[in-house]
Design goal:
The structure is a homodimer. Chain A has about 375 residues and is of the alpha/beta class. Chain A has 2 domains: about 5-115, Alpha-Beta Plaits (2-Layer Sandwich); about 125-380, Ribulose bisphosphate carboxylase, large subunit, C-terminal domain (TIM Barrel, Alpha-Beta Barrel). Helices cover about 40% and strands about 20% of the residues of chain A. Chain A has 14 helices and 13 strands. Chain A has helices spanning about 25-35, 50-55, 85-95, 110-115, 125-130, 150-160, 180-200, 215-225, 235-240, 240-250, 275-290, 305-315, 340-345, 365-380, and strands at about 10-20, 60-65, 70-75, 100-110, 140-145, 165-170, 205, 230-235, 255-260, 275, 290-295, 330-335, 350-355. A 5-stranded mixed sheet of chain A has the order 2-3-1-4-10. A 5-stranded parallel sheet of chain A has the order 7-6-5-13-12, with helices on one face. In chain A, helix 6 crosses helix 14 (about 365-380) and helix 7 (about 180-200) runs parallel beside helix 8. The termini of chain A are far apart. Chains A, B: It comes from Nitrospira defluvii. Chains A, B: This is Ribulose 1,5-bisphosphate carboxylase large subunit. Chains A, B: InterPro entries: RuBisCO (IPR033966), RuBisCO_lsu_C (IPR000685), RuBisCO_lsu_C_sf (IPR036376), RuBisCO_lsu_N_sf (IPR036422).
Chain lengths: ~375, ~375
């Protein structure tokens, strides 16, 4: 095949960057990204014809946001995507990430490319249907701290479930430690939650943390499902995003996925580089298959703003082809005092992740959960 | 099991951070990392006994580098590691990454923990033995640009191999595209290189790019080996580091691994946060199993310095228990004019990744490679 036998459909996807530097410098760098993100080669290595005319990126829009920050909108042929997260990440930020002063701020895929992404298995509507909670925010409790035995965690899970929370997730620190083996912990906690659910008559889904290299990750997910887990917690920063997409696509173990931002911080903490929160905690989890996306909440010590969180929620829930939507979360030392503020920001389609405050009185965890849920129900517009 | 039945050996691993802020603020944040990197819970949730006394991180050293940057050395029990990369990344920078103003600058594992890491399959000595190149720097050519057909890439590979390079790697952009399917490309290029090797009498290893979700990644690696590949190129930023470790550990396809920094940039570009280059491009690839680690070279447009590159080389090659060493690389528009400078920095244990310059005269690629290799041989101290 010679280069001119290459055929492109003409359909392109869009990647938006913010570039640091003067207009001339930023424009030069945008032009260079068209090459670096595709062929990454000097001009004399790029043959004439379709590689040069169609395969390379194109700067479609370029404008100054201020003297030293410029927005560039680039497009690339959809033939360079393959429906995997890794190829999408490579095409949008693979080499661009290495430059510094380049921030990935948006990804716009045409429907034909969106359709190939894994997407959430259940999404907001599906998870609500499974939980039989049609309208109010969901409440999620967390099993911690690391160091407790399976029995101690199961006792805690039982209290949370009796308190009427919708979801109970492992802390991301829970693994397969000698003092708390994965299989024993997951079985005990799942049993405890099932038992409490029978008492309350409410569905409560348990999301154990699955982790580690493939195929161990899949074994753990399968084991979790067999033991009675109703969801899975996974950290794409550690496993890679395609592990999430694969779990979302598999016909078994077929559980909704809660994504945790562990090890993803480098991408968002510097405002001049990396990946904007709406992409990192909204679009990417959603493309990969997050039913729930956890991320740092504004107003604490994390370098994330109210506007960032609004952008994440928008990316989680806006129409994107046939992709189901993802629950954004109110996480990080979350307690009753922030309910109104969070619902003003997010509305009802949000998951509250309960912080340590719910355990202020160790003998009254169940009541504290009930109180929190009542507040959520009352606050519901 | 109650909390006081927890047992720790007392052996701990060390994680070093640079923290932005005044001495008081940085110290407070170091203390908080002891909690966030382990139990991530409020004080009233942490039981007395071994969780509090042994499981939590400890600030072992703390000192000011200047008024606004402080170095903190923390230790954690080795029982919190499990030999996987994902657990190591979680324990060293999982939650810390989300804070901003925290930079991971070193990881010191005791031998018992090092022994559990995958490590390079061949390392510098093993790769030299396989190539029968005992002392000089290695030379690696790159198949590009994306858009060429398998035949065109094979023709290029043939020229490189006749030119006597030691390694020929796919560009990280080469995937499984309709215009250049993975299987056809890898077979054609491997055949061409084998054929040229017979003519030259020299070993030349071909490293196709393997990518995508597990188990597809493993299928591609296995197929590559069957087709005659002698190494593999892999991007841990896309696949996750544990995919690298698994490939390094497997008894088949058992090929040396070349790691590419695609999508890893966010971790290093901001000097105040993320991960120092010596860790990101030195220690982590080496722990995971890189025989060769590729990273951006100083003196171009990347935010990386001569000192950073020296640190990477040190991390690649210093004694670390029984772990084999990793080849650092001189990459990024590399040409003859930088040989002396690179060898002054790296010595002979380095791989030169040839840039587009080697193809300045399309009909004389073979000669250009021969000339470059002669220069490397002459420059050899």
């Amino acid at each position: 095949m010679t280069a001119d036998q290459l055929r492109f459909s003409g359909q392109r996807f869009t990647v938006e960057y913010h570039l640091q530097g003067s207009a001339a410098d930023a424009r030069r760098r945008a032009d260079l990204l068209c090459i670096d993100q595709t062929v990454e080669a000097a001009d004399h290595v790029i043959p004439p014809g379709p590689i040069r005319n169609e395969l390379l990126g194109r700067v479609e829009q370029f404008e100054g946001l201020d003297d030293e920050v410029h927005a560039a909108s680039l497009t690339f042929p959809i033939e360079l995507l393959d429906g995997t997260m890794s190829t999408l990440l490579h095409m949008s930020f693979g080499m661009a990430s290495l430059q510094g002063g380049v921030r990935l701020v948006n990804l716009i895929l045409p429907d034909v490319a969106l359709t190939r992404m894994a997407g959430p298995r259940l999404g907001i509507a599906g998870l609500r249907a499974q939980l039989e909670v049609p309208a109010r925010p969901l409440v999620c409790a967390v099993l911690k701290p690391l160091g407790l035995s399976p029995d101690a965690l199961a006792t805690l899970a039982y209290e949370f479930a009796l308190g009427g929370v919708d979801l109970i997730k492992d802390d991301q620190s829970l693994g397969d430690h000698p003092f708390c083996p994965f299989e024993e912990r997951v079985s005990r906690c799942a049993e405890a939650i099932t038992s409490a659910s029978k008492e309350t008559g409410r569905t409560c889904l348990y999301a154990p943390h699955v982790f580690g290299p493939w195929p161990k990750l899949l074994e753990r997910a399968t084991l979790a499902k067999s033991a009675g887990a109703g969801a899975l917690l996974i950290c794409p920063g550690l496993t890679g995003y395609d592990a999430v997409a694969t779990l979302s696509r598999l016909s078994a173990p077929c559980l909704p996925l809660i994504l945790h931002p562990d090890f993803l911080g480098s991408h968002y903490v510097s405002p001049d580089s990396g990946i904007a929160p709406a992409v990192l905690f909204g679009l990417l989890p959603r493309f990969a298959g997050a039913d729930v996306s956890i991320y740092p909440t504004y107003g604490l010590t994390y370098p994330i703003t109210h506007t960032d969180c609004r952008g994440i929620a928008q990316a989680c829930r806006t129409r994107l082809g046939m992709l189901s939507s993802t629950f954004p979360t109110a996480a990080g030392r979350m307690n009753a005092s922030r309910i109104d503020e969070m619902m003003a920001l997010y509305g009802s389609d949000v998951v509250f992740i309960l912080g340590s405050d719910i355990r202020r009185e160790p003998t009254q965890i169940r009541d504290a959960c009930r109180t929190f849920r009542r507040l959520i129900e009352t606050a519901h517009p």
